[in-house]
Amino acid sequence: MRLKATDRGYASGPAGIAALIAAVLALTVIGLLMASRGQASDAPLAKGDADGHYDEPKALGDESAEAMRSVVRTPRKPPASAPAAVGSGSDPLPASKPLEARESDPSPAVGPLFYTGEGEPDHSCSASVVHSPRGDLIATAAHCVYQREFRTDIAFVPGYHDGQAPYGVWVPTSVDITPEWADSGDQDHDVAFLRVRRVGDDTPIERVTGAERIRFRPEPNRPARVIGYPIGEERPLGCQNITGTHGPTQLRFDCHGLPNGTSGGPILTDVDPATGLGTVNGVLGGFQGGGDDETSYSSYFGDAVEKLYRRATG
């Protein structure tokens, strides 16, 4: 989970000490909140293999889907096919003015990751459907799915809004991260791919929601849109700006107000104005756990991420 923090200086003297104590207490409260939102040390975990691969037992996925019945409303008959792709072309994606995140319409291929193993399910990360040969793949940040071991209580709800799951609830069949993330939490490898299924239905998710394309070795300085779900919110936030870089291994996106919970959300270019689908150039995470209140990051989608994608879809 991204720790959206800003640097603050404190004056010396009693007032400064009081401010510092207040800040420490506030950070303690934030830490406790994070522990209750899918990042706690007692979260249900399981070991994967040495390469960073985990196959989720069907029973665990079924349990997560069942737990979600208490917090989301699913259509009696969820859509069996993706929304029609009408039109073509690319949205120019002008920079948001002012340059800050604001409430956005839900996108069929983007949704929150819920965690079901610690009381009432709640969401604290985001993910997106990306194109794959089997049509069953989503992308997110590695820190959203791996905390010393793999989370076993994940559920993905594409297009989520206002307690509704218009395309159903999807649970992992497998999770892939790089060995570098598994070994040391290397911020240049904060990417994960999950294959998912809908309980009682073998329709691939891509046929239901559509899918974002994925770009490896993306060029910076491109108009882009970020979308993600803040913790506890019922609708996503979105922001548009030009992508940049933070060294050779991180993509950078400047925008105020992308808080905890947006981790794993896609950085999209070449967005079709008719469908809202675009091309994933990165997922929020990486440097500083994803950034601060003004700047967000993504591990660069270079050779290592392409290799991870090939492994996840092989």
UniProtKB/TrEMBL annotation:
Gene3D superfamilies: Trypsin-like serine proteases. Residues 82-92 have a biased composition (Low complexity). Residues 48-61 have a biased composition (Basic and acidic residues). The keyword Lipid metabolism does not apply. SUPFAM superfamilies: Trypsin-like serine proteases. Coiled coil: none annotated. The keyword Signal applies. It comes from the Bacteria. This is V8-like Glu-specific endopeptidase. It holds the Pfam family Trypsin_2. It comes from Streptomyces netropsis. Keywords: Signal. Residues 42-128 are annotated as: Disordered. InterPro entries: Glutamyl_endopeptidase, Peptidase_S1_PA, Peptidase_S1_PA_chymotrypsin.
